[in-house]
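Predict structure. Chain length: 67.
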Amino acid sequence: MEAAGNMAADRQRRYMMDAPEVAAALGCKIGLAYKVIRQCNEELKAMGKLTIRGKVNRKYFESKLQV
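Prediction complete.
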């Protein structure tokens, strides 16, 4: 049962980024990373997308950075 939980967590890590990952990508502090996540999630919500507090969709974040 534990393996299934780990697989789900790995899948989420691929699709979602948390504040430490965003901070590392931007080279900034965690506080600013949370502000960026909030802004991205507000934009996603306005488009009718589901958001998770404290995490941002990796593809959307990278498209905003144009990586």
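Summary: Strands lie at 16-18, 55-57.
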